[in-house]
Amino acid sequence: MNGSESSTTCGHCKSPLHLAIIGSGSAAFAAAIAAVENGARVTLIEAADRIGGTCVNVGCIPSKVMIHSAGMAQLQAHHPCNGVGHTAPRIDRRAMVAEQQGLVDALRAAKYENILQGQPEITLIKGFARFVNANTLTISRPQQNETTLQADRILIATGASPHIPDITGLNDTPYWTSTEALAATELPQGLIVLGGSVVALELAQAFLHLGVKVTLLARSTLLSKEEPLIGSTLLQILEEEGMEIMTHCVPDHITHDGQHFEVQTSNGMFNAEALLVATGRRANTRNLRLENAGITTDATGRIVVDAMLQTRCTGIYAAGDCTTNPQYVYVAAAAGTRAAINMTGGNMLLDLQVLPKVVFTEPQVATVGLSEADARAQGIDVTSRNLTLENVPRARVNHDTRGFIKLVADAGSGKLLGCQVIAEAAGEIIQTAALALNQQLTVAQLATQLFPYLTMVEGLKLCAQTFNKDVSQLSCCAG
Questions:
Q1: Running DSSP on this structure, what letter comes out for residue 291?
Q2: Are strands 122-126 and 41-46 parallel, antiparallel or unpaired?
Q3: d(CA 198, CA 217)
Q4: First-to-last CA distance in the chain?
Q5: Nearest Cα residue to 66 out of 217, 179, 192
Q6: Cis omega (within 30 of 0) for bond into 62
Q7: What is the per-residue burial (b if ≥16 Cβ within 10 Å, else e) of 49-62?
Q8: Which of 360, 201, 161, 180 is nearest to 275 (CA)?
Q9: Is residue 31 within a helix (H) or strand (E), and if so which, with residue range?
């Protein structure tokens, strides 16, 4: 870095360092707040009508509201408790969407709009930014002349959008992405979902729980990048709930006759009133003219960054879903903060060695660290144990023993390498495993920790104990 890059003031004029941030989502706002805390002034540039990005507006928040409400409907009709009656839920989808949007609006105001109002050092410009060179942007705004903005440093935090696969006929149909599915105020009788990863599975099950007949078509297996046992277990759970699932199923042609979709695949023809395309997300980088600043992307358009969030061009950083980093909002926010620190003279890495991940199906899926296959691919001699939930007292009390807890360890040292979970509250369980990984605990050390009895997280201890004990022969809460 040159001398001006190690200070929060411009080296020539001694005025506060000026950062331009393209985007206004989680990465962008985390960066803006950190930059102001470090003495810089910030210009945010947002092309969309609303600030806040994907998570609060059309992603994490509305989807989890829908998933939770759908879960309540599922419990009302199918809960496992004897002596408590079952009733068919009355679904008012318009009321659900209104509640969902109310929370979205409240959180966007609290976490984005109000922050802008309280931070005079942050200026918001509505418009679409493009690079002229490494420190100059042009900003296009509807019904206004194009303007030019120069900055000492630039952060790209433009996020990602749903990827639409190249399937004959698809673009001529009124298909849904996750955005339209979450906003739909009427429930279709039948829904075809294209995809086998996080968004596809979460929304497919939510619609199923709301009484929609769901058919899911996956090109590979479910959650194909994870431990194979996860996909096979989740497949069984979803099929038992009534979802039709076709794996290794490739759509060839899609038509819409004004009322129904027809999806021709390698496995036959499928028909439904609605179609949800949930086949991944692509970085929003295509029209930024990155080449004018010498910024490198991968084959899918994601910006290549190093551990300090810097691109190939000195002074230009990138964070969030538009980069080669994992597409999780908490990764985006952490990256935005660290990018801002580095842009204002700091030296902070984004450490992704311990990255907990959660899929909000019911039961949830959560992973951290290495799977057994990943560890062996790295040449590590591993040992593992898989604990079914029949052995977890809390799961038995909850009448829900679907799923498992799996621990992967180094065969020589016993050091914990990874954890995979399908269980109620798996998202809560996995953070304890992440902390154990971060502290480099062995499974023997994990097995001797005190876990409160009748909690799901106690399953971690029980699984750790299986490395040298038969837990079925232990008394309750045996230490």
A1: G
A2: parallel
A3: 13
A4: 54
A5: 179
A6: no
A7: eebbbbbbbbbbbb
A8: 180
A9: helix 26-37
pLDDT digits (tens, 9 = 90+) for 271-307: 999 999 999 999 999 999 999 999 999 999 999 999 9
Q: Do residues 101 and 62 lie in contact, with contact meaning Cβ atoms separated by under 8 Å?
A: yes
User: What CA–CA distance (Å, rounded) separates 361 from 205?
Assistant: 7
The answer to whether 327 and 168 have CB atoms below 8 angstroms apart is no
Question: What's residue 3's pLDDT?
Answer: 35
- Is 0.90 topped by the overall pTM? yes
- Verify that 47 and 133 share a domain, yes or no: yes
b (16+ CB within 10 A) / e for 362-383? bbbbbbbbbbbebbeeeebebb
Task: Indicate the helix (H) or strand (E) that contains 238.
Answer: helix 228-241
pLDDT in tens, 434-466: 999 999 999 999 999 999 999 999 999 999 999
- Give the containing element (helix H, strand E) for 423: strand 416-423
Give me the pLDDT at residue 478, please: 60
Q: Hey, how many other C-beta atoms are within 10 angstroms of the C-beta on 6? A: 12
CA angle in degrees (0–180, nearest 5) for 260-278-94: 65
Structure-block tokens of residue 362: 């019911």
User: How many CA atoms, within 13 angstroms, populate the side-chain half-sphere of residue 289?
Assistant: 13
Is position 72 within any domain? Answer: no
Cβ(25)–Cβ(155) under 8 Å? no
Domain match, 361 and 381 both: yes
Structure confidence at residue 9 as a pLDDT band (50, 70, 90): low
Q: Tell me if 329 sits within 8 A of 60, measured CB to CB.
A: yes
pLDDT of residue 142: 84
Total domains in the chain come to 3
pLDDT digits 0-9 by tens, 199-226: 999 999 999 999 999 999 999 999 999 9
Q: What CATH code is carried by the domain that includes residue 442?
A: 3.30.390.30
pLDDT in tens, 23-36: 999 999 999 999 99
Report the C-alpha gap between 226 and 232 in whole angstroms: 11
AA identity, residue 95: A
Let me know: does 344 contact 8? Beta carbons within 8 Å.
Answer: yes
Local confidence band at 6 (pLDDT 50, 70, 90 cut-offs): very low
Q: Which of 231, 246, 279 is the last residue of a domain?
A: 279
Residues 195, 280 contacting (CB under 8 angstroms): yes
Name the 3-class secondary structure at 162. strand
Tokens read off for 383 = 């040992």
pLDDT tens digits, 389-417: 999 999 999 999 999 999 999 999 999 99
Three-class DSSP category at 117: helix
Same domain, 103 and 157: yes
- Looking at the chain, how many residues does it have? 479
Over the stretch 226-282, which tens digit does the pLDDT of each residue have? Answer: 999 999 999 999 999 999 999 999 999 999 999 999 999 989 999 999 999 999 999
